[in-house]
Amino acid sequence: MFRFIFLVALGLSFTAAQNERTARVVGGRNAGLGEAPYQVSLRAFGSTFHFCGGALIGNRWVLTAAACVFGRARNSINAVAGSVSLSANGVARRSTNIITHHLFDPRYIDNNIALVQTAAFPLNQNIWPVTLSSTVLRAEVPAVLSGFGATNIDGGANSDRLQILSLITAPNDEDFCIVDFDMNFCTNNGGGEGFCTSDLGGPLVSNGQLIGIASWNHPCGTGWWDVYARVSHYRLWIGAISGI
């Protein structure tokens, strides 16, 4: 109930991804080309505006947040990979199908995970799928978040450059992070660090494995926890649909 009330008070920040508000990874650094070859920028087909992140998990499959794609037509998205700059020539592939988790609840953001199927990406050192985590994540492990957008908590224009931010996963403790720990986990952010609106759906990677998909948060970069969908919990669902 706390989560529902808090999200309403924030104006349901995850829905802003569909309204094309500013995205940002706060407190990060510029990524090098090929440093996060699994990073995908999701854009409306025919538009250059980045509205959500995603993780390439196969040459035809992108894992993202259900809140990013809920209600969108199956062929309405361009997935762009292979570039650390929103304005540079990445490789774009149009969506052919969009599958949100059948138990996704936009009121509470439960099961906030989705698959976007695309035409095949060419795989190379700058476009490469990330391995999915299939084991229960230990708390307090180092992880890396990536995403596009502005670089300060005051907002402003999107950053053209992909941002990388090192984080620590938080203890599974409801006194610290109020989530369903079977489906989600949090990161222990410092002030001026974390993800924001259109970084939703983006990847959190630990030891070369995709452990989380950016799901929802408190106001950006304020030191509060960020919440991620726990990839290992959805491993069977992902495999049943994608074969991965």
Automatic annotation (TrEMBL):
Return the InterPro entries for the record: Peptidase_S1, Peptidase_S1_PA, Peptidase_S1_PA_chymotrypsin, Peptidase_S1A, Trypsin_dom
* Organism domain of life: Eukaryota
PROSITE patterns documented for this protein:
TRYPSIN_DOM
Domain (Peptidase S1): give its ranges.
Answer: 25-243
The record's section on Pfam families has: Trypsin (PF00089)
GO terms in the biological process aspect are: proteolysis
Keyword Nucleotidyltransferase among record annotations: no
**Keywords from the UniProt entry:** Disulfide bond, Hydrolase, Protease, Serine protease, Signal
User: What SMART domains does this protein's entry cite?
Assistant: Tryp_SPc
Has UniProt tagged this entry with the keyword Disulfide bond? yes
Q: Point out the coiled-coil segments of this chain.
A: none
Q: Which GO terms describe its molecular function?
A: serine-type endopeptidase activity
Q: Which SUPFAM superfamilies match?
A: Trypsin-like serine proteases
Give the signal sequence positions: 1-17
Do you know which CDD domains this protein is assigned to?
Tryp_SPc (cd00190)
- Which family, according to the similarity comment? Belongs to the peptidase S1 family. CLIP subfamily.
Q: Which PANTHER family match?
A: AT26814P-RELATED, POLYSERASE-RELATED
Q: What is this protein called?
A: Peptidase S1 domain-containing protein
